[in-house]
Each structure stands twice: as structure tokens, then as C-alpha cells.
Amino acid sequence: MPRGSLDNHLFRRSLPLPWSIRMKVALGAAQGLSFLHEEAERPVIYRDFKTSNILLDSEYNAKLSDFGLAKDGPVGDKTHVSTRVMGTYGYAAPEYVMTGHLTSKSDVYSFGVVLLEMMSGRRSMDKNRPNGEHNLVEWARPLLGERQRFYKLVDPRLEGNFSVKGAQKAAQLARACLSRDPKARPLMSQVVEALKPLLNLKDMASSSYFYQTMQAERMAHS
Prior knowledge:
Layout: H1 6-11, H2 19-39, E1 44-45, E2 54-56, E3 62-64, E4 71-72, E5 81-82, H3 94-99, E6 101-102, H4 104-120, H5 136-144, H6 164-177, H7 188-195, H8 209-221
Antiparallel strand pairs: 1-4, 2-3, 5-6
Helix pairs in contact: 2-4, 2-7, 4-6
Domain Protein kinase: 1-199
GO molecular function, one term: protein kinase activity
Protein name: Protein kinase domain-containing protein
């Protein structure tokens, strides 16, 4: 793929990926998972959804790669597949890590982690961050539900060039995907529908009074 992986663009390039491109990639990746879960001849659980497995073409269309850990989903009246725990630490759903019980909702959790990475420009696990910020989900969870603090989640390298409404909705979606209760997580088809309206929002945070006030506070404390 001409542009390589999402991981490369988020974490290795000096120029930050624009907010609109991040949302386009999120939608494309969500559509890929939705197809595997709900439209394939037999349901497939991807099991290793992460930024390095999302490849981008020249137009930033996302394509899932490396199906080495993919697993057929449960059939009939079965609710899950039992399997040895595989995947990448920081992305794997907690119930899967604890029990080895794999469902499509395990992929939904991993999508929530990747959506957080796209919003924040932070890796899912980063030991170079201050104490309390090594694990992205644990650091972000308290901020996801708060209207006045969700700005702190957004990649500062974007310098306010992101949609306020889009970031709010993305934070709400990430929170739902990262629910500790797998049954409370949305289907990937619902994630797709939630992301579609976020692609073309123009309410840039850089022109909002609240964001400018927050930036002033950040400068005062730095």
C-alpha cells in the first residue's frame, strides 16, 4: 500500500495526520471489521486489530492486513470461541485476556483503543509517558465522559485544527467501544453509522472560545 501503515503516520512522521484524514481512516477500518463480523459468509473475529495492521492507499483508504490471528466466530447457539490468548498487549479486550473467551466484541474493544490513538496521537502503551499515563485506556477513561475535559484527549500537534463536535462524538464512541461489559459495546455496523457524520464537520476548535481559554491555561501551567 502506497502510504504504509497508520502506525507510521500517527507515531513516526513529523507532520501530524489531519483530523479529517484520521476520521476517514477510522471509518474505513470500521467498515472492514463490520464486513468481517456481519457480512462475511461466516463471521470472522480479526483478533489483532491495531494501528500497524491498518494499511493506507494513496487516498488514505484503510485496508486491514495480516489475518494471521483471525479466527472463525461462534456459530449456532454458541456465544464465544475459546482460544489461547493471542494478540497485542494494550489492544486486547480485558475479558479475552482474563478468560480466553473471544467474541466480535473483543474486536470492538480493540477498535476503541485505536480510535483513542487516532484522537490523541498517543500509543496504547508508552512507558516513556509520566506515571499514570503509560496505559492509554486507563489514562483516557476518566476524560471520555466529561464534556469539559475531553479536549485533553486530542492530539496537541493538531493545534486546534479538529472539529469540536467530531471530537466529542468520537470520545463518546470510544467510551462505548471500551465498555468493560462486552455486551454494552456497539456492533461494528453501529460504529460505522456513528462515524459517517463526523467526516465533514467544519466547527474547528481553534476558533472556539473554550479551546482558546484552555490553551491559555495550559500555557500558564507549563
